[in-house]
Design goal:
Nucl-diP-sugar_transferase; alpha/beta; RRA1/2/3; 7-stranded mixed β-sheet; Glycosyltransferase; 12 strands; EC 2.4.2.-; 428 residues; Nucleotide-diphossugar_trans
Length: 428
């Protein structure tokens, strides 16, 4: 009896549900046919009028002349284009509105996203967050690259160098130094077929990107600076896949494994173009303007730029945003990638500009040595020349790159003490 009662209740419930659905359907039909209501004097004619008008339109359209049809098609295309343009404007305005809304409350949202709010500790114990969390890897971005990196990366870290046929001689010196030191997590991004074949012949891990007109044009024919600017587009996928990247230009000689000398506590860890403690790590530069009288001295903070040819990126949101910002600006104007790289890292937020909030670290200038430090300071100082062995030497200050790279190998690897002596401090 209980089972029969349950079935009858289920049947009754089903009937009620069906009745409700039928009622909703009838209501929708009536709303379409009688938009002004049942008791409006014009409502009884509205449906008939609509049907008669549509019939007239169909009948008349069959009689339209070819010229008329052509004109209508032209109007349709024109309206479609205007509609697309309006949609684009609406989309852009919507994005600007969203950005404005995000900016007004971004600080609070970022704090909440990092975790629960905490109280400040006693004086001298409060330390801010220095290391941003890494992103969740997304292998769907580039499955082919993901497979390559899985095979060669060590502890999710890899050295990446971009090269085309124009820099082949320097690449040979760099690869020889990489093999001499015993670095295995090194990958060449081959920008043309010549470098791809070169890597195959010399058993060097490489990756050749899928065809991309914008990248290929520069990658196959560009010089050192042009190729250097491509890295900000290329490296994004490495970070999205969850890998830490140590970007290296080809005019660099490796003398030790750099991964043993990194701190890994920042979004960006870069070598400096500075040549002493002040220029590499920053200093208070006082500007003197006598006409101001009592206020003649203005204090400014200065630091030599980060070198965009050798830097370490962790796979964090700020690091990816840095790549996006630089790549976007380079695509719109002919500017030096290193200048843009540093402007995005160091410029503070100000009216109509929201700065990048990335943590940064400068590498030790004697371990990660630029060629100005080597040729102007180290080679002339007996103690430094004897005791300092850099991790890398970047021949960034001099145009005769290949010959100076070879001299670095002769001095630091083969022990030829006068190998550096014949070169001028700067360029001739």
């Amino acid at each position: 009896m209980a089972g029969r009662r349950d079935r009858s209740q289920q049947l009754r419930g089903s009937r009620i549900a069906i009745a409700i659905l039928i009622g909703i359907f009838i209501g929708c039909v009536c709303a379409v046919l009688f938009p002004n209501g049942f008791f409006n004097s014009n409502s009884s004619l509205s449906a008939t009028e609509r049907l008669s008008k549509s019939s007239n339109k169909v009948g008349s359209s069959a009689c339209e002349s070819p010229e008329r049809v052509k004109m209508l098609k032209s109007d349709f295309v024109s309206l479609s284009e205007k509609n697309a343009e309006l949609k684009k404007q609406i989309r852009e305005l919507t994005q600007k509105l969203q950005l404005a809304e995000q900016g007004s409350d971004s600080a609070r949202k970022q704090v909440l996203a990092l975790g629960t709010q905490i109280k400040a500790g006693p004086f001298g114990t409060v330390k801010s967050l220095r290391t941003n969390p890494t992103i969740l890897p997304d292998e769907s971005v580039n499955p082919r690259l993901a497979k390559i990196l899985e095979e060669i990366a060590v502890d999710k870290e890899v050295i990446v160098a971009l090269a085309n046929a124009n820099v082949k001689a320097m690449l040979e010196v760099q690869i020889a130094s990489i093999k001499r030191v015993g670095i295995t997590n090194y990958l060449v991004v081959a920008l043309d077929d010549y470098i791809e074949n070169f890597c195959k012949e010399n058993d060097v891990a490489y990756y050749k990107r899928d065809s991309d007109k914008d990248v290929d044009t520069v990658g196959k024919t560009g010089g050192n600076h042009a190729v250097s600017g491509l890295k900000f587009r290329v490296l994004r996928e490495f970070l999205q896949l969850g890998y830490c990247v140590l970007l290296s230009d080809v005019d660099i000689v490796f003398l030790q494994n750099p991964f043993s000398h990194l701190y890994r506590d920042s979004d960006v860890e870069s070598m400096s173009d500075g040549h002493d403690n002040h220029t590499a790590y920053g200093f208070n530069d006082v500007f003197d303007e006598p006409s101001m009288g009592w206020a003649r001295y203005a204090h400014t903070m200065r630091i030599w730029v980060f070198n965009s040819g050798f830097f370490y990126l962790r796979p964090t949101i700020p690091a990816i945003e840095l790549l996006d910002r630089v790549a976007d600006r380079l695509s719109k104007a002919k500017v030096w990638d290193q200048a843009v790289f540093n402007e995005e890292l160091f410029y503070p937020s100000h009216p109509e500009y929201i700065a990048l909030h990335a943590s940064k670290r400068v590498m030790d200038m004697y371990e990660f040595m630029n060629s100005k430090v080597l040729f102007k300071t180290v080679r002339k100082n007996h103690e430094l020349k004897k005791k300092v062995k850099p991790v890398i030497v970047h021949v960034n200050y001099h145009p005769d790159k290949l010959y100076r790279m070879q001299a670095v190998v002769e001095f630091y690897v083969n022990g030829k003490q006068d190998a550096l002596d014949s070169f001028p401090d700067g360029s001739e």
